[in-house]
Structure formats: C-alpha cells, structure tokens
Design goal:
Elements lengths: L10 E8 L6 E16 L5 E17 L12 E13 L26 E13 L4 E12 L2 E13 L4 E10 L17 E3 L3 H5 L7 E3 L4 E9 L5 E12 L3 E2 L18 E2 L3 E15 L3 E10 L4 E12 L4 E10 L17 E10 L5 E15 L5 H8 L5 H10 L13 H7 L6 E17 L2 E12 L9 E14 L3 E13 L8 E15 L2 E12 L3 E12 L4
Parallel strand pairs: 9-10
Antiparallel strand pairs: 1-2, 2-3, 3-4, 4-5, 5-6, 6-7, 7-8, 8-11, 11-12, 12-15, 13-14, 15-16, 16-17, 17-18, 18-19, 19-20, 20-21, 21-22, 22-23, 23-24, 24-25, 25-26, 26-27
C-alpha cells in the first residue's frame, strides 16, 4: 500500500493504494484540494467569495486476462477516474433562477459538479498484435488538440509500418450528466438549466442548453519506426438541440414561446478539421518537427508550425521555431461573425548544460500580429471621422472611444462610412520583440534559479504599443540535510500600456518557504507570499502543503 496527502491553503490530500505485483494488478488513486479566496471591490465590499474543495478518485485494473508472462500477448485493462469540484462559497440566487433576482443568477453554475474524467475498457495486442480497442470515455492528444469523447476506438496495426485508427461516439460537453465543457470547441456558452430557466431561456440568448454531440474520426500513422513519426488526423463533430441564432429579438411571430428570438435546431456541424504532424530524428545530428491543422468548415489553416533542432554537441542544442495561429470557434458561435486575425511567431533558441551543476536556456525572436487597420493610427483616425476636434475631445475619444450611438447602423453617420472604408481596413502587420531565458545552478545541499522575460513593441514613445518585462530569482538551501530546507523567491515585473498609462505599474514580490521532512514518509511545506504594486497595494497569501507517502 502507498498513500500521499497534500494540503493547499485549507488542506489537500492524495491517497494511492496498489496491490502487490500479482497476475492482475490494480490501484486506487485519489486527491483532495481545498482553497479559499475573495474578490474585494475598491470600497472594501466582498463581491465574490469562494471556498473550493476539489476531489478526484481513480480505479484501475491491469492484466485482466490473468497471464502477464507473455510480453506481446493479449492484455486487457480498465481505468476509471472521477472528479468533484465543489464550491461552498456560492450564494443563494447564483445557481437557482428566480425572475425577481435574476441579476445574481449565473446560468450553468453548479455548487458541486461531478464529471468522469475517463472510464474505459482497453484491449491491446489482440489477433497476434494486429488489433487494439478502447471502449468508454477516453482522451485523445494529437495535432487537432486535447479532446475527450464517449464511444469506441479501434486501432489496426499492420506489418507495413503504419497503423489505422477509427473512432466514433459523442463529444464530452458541458450541461450533460457527469461531463465538463473543457474539451468543446471555443466560443459557445453551454450548461445545464432547470425548468424555470428553460421557460425564460430568451432572457439569456448567449446560453445554450447542453445536448449530445455525435462525433467520428479516423487517423493514419506510422508505426514500428524509431526515427520518424508521421500522423494524419480527421475529426468531425456535430451540434444538436436548439440554439439562438442572434442576440436581438424580432417580432413574436417567429414562434410561440421564442420571445422573439430566431432559433436553429437539428443536426449541424460543430467542427470539421484535418491535421498532419511529422517528427524525424537523426542520432547526433538533430530533429525536425512540423504540422498543420485545416478547418474544412471555414476553409482556413488555423495552425501551422515547424521546428528544427541541431545537436551542436553532447551538451548544447540549437533550435528554431515558427508558428502560425488563427483563432477558430464552434460553428454555432457568434464569434465567427466578428473579424479575427492570425498571429505568428519566429524564435531562435539555445539550451546547454556545461556541467552537472550548471545549465541554461534562452530564446528570442518576434511575434507578429495581423490587424485590419494600423493600430498606431486607427483610433486617432476614427476620432477625427467622428468630429472630435479639440485636443481635450481627442484625448477623451482616445481613452474612452467614440460615441457609437447609431454610428454603425446609420449610413448618414460619418463613422458608418469610416468603419466600412477599405482604406481604413487595410491589413497591417505589427511586430513585438520577445525574449526569455533561465539559468540554474545546483550544489550538494541546494539550488538556485534565475528566470527573466521581456515583450515589447517596436518604435518610439508615440508608436510603441507597450511592454512587459521582469524576472524571478529563487533558491533552496538545506539547513539540516535530509530534514529541514529553507527556500525563497524574489520577483519584479513592470508593464506599460500607452493606451492606458494610468495602469502602468511595477510589481514586487517575495516568498519565504520553509520545508520539513521529519520522516521518509512525510514532508511539510509552508509558503508566505507578499506582492505589492501601486494599483492593488499589498496582497498576502499563505499556503500549506503536507505530503505523505507510504510504500513497501
């Protein structure tokens, strides 16, 4: 048997029980974490109070076939893991919809949501190693992103250095029993709702009630080759159930009980994507990686990346990275109506370990932003089009924006023409300088780390879009080796935004963290943190961590 317990703030615990190494191996794992915090208004009132208790429980059994002596023979296993993320700080009216007190109501908010993180039966090396399968709730990690679904997956392994996967089922979605919204495509607010909310659903047109989402996909990848890995993925997910198609009401003639809102119902695409990734390695030379994701529904490449490593020596690696990213959303999302532009980055890096005690890494490059209109002059041009003439008027316009009353719906308004002018919407490419680095040095009884970063726009004070920079120094020293350590951290960060100079600040903070290990089975750690800047004043945090582990 082995167990571990961890406490954060109010406390946390972890329990792990494992059977001896028999023909059938099994284990039970779990953890509990508690935390509390409050968000206070500028007047000292607590506007949001939370008391959270998160707990997980996992059960797994391996070698269910009862014979583990055949290393490449058929094997079966079961894995289940559940999570409860309770919040006892939620007040009345936040979860239950009451028309008279709907200002406090948060659609979809639950006091103690329970979700099954994973729960599946798996079989491997069937039919002489030609077939694998997995049935139940499961994760997938590939170039299309981290994803979870309920259903079945079959993998066919061929003797020709490639394998074929096929899967189908239902995407895990918020608002359904024992589910979470973590793995949905972005851009849609989904959850569960009671009967009272459903009757007045038009009051929250942005909120959609959870419904099943059929999904299927295929993948083709190389197998059996240790110097190259290549994989092609295709996945399609459907939306079902009702959804509002707009945020503004029309005449009630649209339909009884609709509140004047148009709706869509039935089977429709949520996401439809293909992706490809490639990794190649050459001993003592280097490595090459690359890939892309293409959205078939919208007809855009949403992600593309390439990186190369050169093993300059046994202790030093040089590399370059380039990545392109375009935000993408669920096909039901209103964000598809708005302009969203891509960003890209190009970085060079080095990582080295000159000795067993010292190592460092650094990277530097640029991040590129594509926008409609020049960010340096667009706001001033809009203010001029809006008729702001005096210096005081222009200053107020740049700070708070133009008066948009009928500005974008009245063709006779000057701002209407400005917003639709091709001249003011020309594509503009802006660049930021990005750099970060870290170094660490370790000795027999301790270690020290240094981390630093900077991101800043180019240009003078009038055109530079801002900056943020800072660094952290941390260290740990054994006072009584094997029994007591003392750690700490000092950090400072500075940020500047020309559009909001009143938000400029420099933040300073420190952490003192003693750590005690009275026995080989347990460790106690306490962290005292103090952060300060001119915007928020002084903030304090204390964290306690208790870790225990018992093993034969």
């Amino acid at each position: 048997m082995r167990s571990s317990v961890a406490a954060s703030l109010a406390g946390a615990s972890v329990l792990l029980i494992q059977a001896p190494a028999l023909a059938i191996d099994w284990e039970v794992t779990g953890d509990v974490a508690a935390q509390g915090y409050e968000v206070v208004s500028p007047w000292g009132d607590v506007v949001l109070g939370r008391r959270r208790l998160m707990s997980t429980l996992g059960v797994a059994a391996y070698n269910l076939q009862g014979d583990a002596s055949r290393p490449f023979g058929p094997s079966y296993s079961v894995q289940v893991r559940m999570r409860v993320d309770a919040d006892f700080g939620i007040r009345d009216g936040e979860t239950g919809y009451v028309p008279a007190d709907r200002a406090r109501f948060v659609p979809g908010l639950q006091i103690a949501p329970v979700d099954v993180m994973m729960g599946y039966v798996e079989g491997r090396n069937l039919l002489g190693g030609a077939l694998d399968f997995r049935l139940g709730r499961q994760y997938q990690t590939n170039v299309l992103g981290w994803w979870s679904f309920d259903g079945g997956l079959v993998r066919v392994n061929t003797p020709y250095y490639f394998a074929l996967e096929s899967y189908g089922g239902f995407e895990q979605r918020g608002g359904l029993p024992l589910s979470t919204s973590r793995y949905e495509a972005q851009g849609v607010w989904r959850g569960a709702g009671d009967d009272a909310l459903r009757q007045d659903a038009h009051l929250y047109p942005s909120f959609q009630f959870g419904a099943v989402a059929p999904a299927f996909g295929v993948a083709l990848e190389t197998s059996g080759l240790n110097w190259i890995k290549s994989r092609f993925d295709y996945r399609r997910v459907y939306n079902t159930g009702e959804a509002f198609t707009g945020q503004f009401a029309f005449p009630d003639s649209i339909g009884p009980g609709s509140g004047g809102y148009e709706k869509v119902d039935g089977l429709r695409i949520s996401s439809d994507r293909i992706g490809y990734s490639l990794s190649a390695f050459l001993d003592d030379v280097g490595a090459l990686r690359g890939g892309f994701v293409y959205d078939l529904y919208f007809g855009n490449i949403t992600r593309a990346f390439v990186s190369a490593d050169y093993f300059a020596s046994s202790k030093t690696t040089l590399g370059i990275d380039a990545e392109y990213f375009l935000p993408s959303f669920d096909a039901d999302s209103i964000f598809n109506w708005f302009t969203h532009n891509p960003s890209a980055s190009a970085m060079a890096r080095i990582a080295s370990q000159p000795s067993r005690s010292f190592q460092f890494a650094a990277q530097a490059g640029t991040k590129l932003w594509l926008t409609e209109g020049d960010p340096a002059s667009w706001a001033a041009a809009q203010c001029a089009a809006g008729g702001y003439a005096t210096a005081e008027q222009v200053s107020q316009c740049l700070r708070f924006g133009v008066d948009s009353t009928n500005a974008f719906t009245d063709p006779n308004n000057a701002l209407y023409a400005f917003a639709r002018s091709e001249e003011s919407r020309k594509s503009d490419l802006s660049a930021d300088l990005v750099a970060n680095g870290n170094a660490s040095y370790a000795w027999y009884s301790g270690k020290a780390d240094l981390r630093a970063m900077v991101q800043t726009g180019f240009g003078d004070a009038a055109t530079n879009r801002g900056r943020r920079a800072g660094g952290t120094i941390s260290a740990q020293q054994a006072i009584v080796p094997g029994l007591f350590w003392l750690g700490g951290r000092v950090s400072t960060y500075d940020w500047h935004d020309p559009l909001r100079p009143d938000r400029d600040a420099t933040s300073f903070g420190y952490v003192i963290a003693p750590e005690l290990q009275p026995t080989q089975f347990g460790k106690v750690r306490v962290e005292w943190e103090h952060e300060m800047n001119r915007l928020v004043g002084h903030r304090f945090r204390i964290l306690g961590l208790l870790t225990m582990r018992v093993a034969p």
